[in-house]
Amino acid sequence: MTLKAQKVINGTHGAAWVNGEKWIDLESVELKVTLEYEDVHVAENTGTQRKFMGWVGEGSINTKKVYSRGSNLLAKAVKSGKMPEVTITTKLADPDAYGTERTTVSDVTFDEFMLTKIEQRTLMTEELPFKFGDFDILEAIK
């Protein structure tokens, strides 16, 4: 099988929804699962083996600074101590590719948000790093 260049997905066709709202100002989104292991040392074996213990989900969503995404979502929650339930769903699709990839993460907890950032002669963006407690792969490219 030969790789066809036009089948490589262009991220321009990607999208993200936060609690069902499509964030049209999306710049990028990353969802990552890091596996956690404990070292296991076995008698009469000088090698180190590993036992899977769990995983950690983390990511970030970056937007063009059109809206105050972070403060709109989190400022009142931070002040009141009642954090919102958040689910993020992503779709990576390209009309010239072999298919679509869709993922959803839930139990999202944001690590920080920017109150203000000003930089002259710069198109502003906003980054919202987060962790998540569950995920589902809704659709994968085969």
Q: What structural category characterises the helix and strand content?
A: mainly beta
Q: Quote the average pLDDT.
A: 95
Helix content: under 10%
What does the radius of gyration come to? 19 Å
- What distance lies between the first and last C-alpha atoms, to the nearest angstrom? 14 Å
Task: Give a brief outline of the structure.
The protein is mainly beta and 142 residues long.
Task: Provide an overview of this structure.
Helices cover 8% and strands 48% of the residues. The mean pLDDT is 95. The protein has 142 residues and is mainly beta. It is globular.
Structural topology:
Layout: E1 15-18, E2 21-22, E3 26-41, E4 48-64, H1 69-80, E5 88-93, E6 100-106, E7 109-110, E8 125-132, E9 134-139
Antiparallel strand pairs: 1-2, 1-5, 3-4, 4-8, 5-6, 6-9, 7-8
Descriptive tags:
five-stranded antiparallel beta sheet, Pnp Oxidase, Chain A, 142 residues, mainly beta
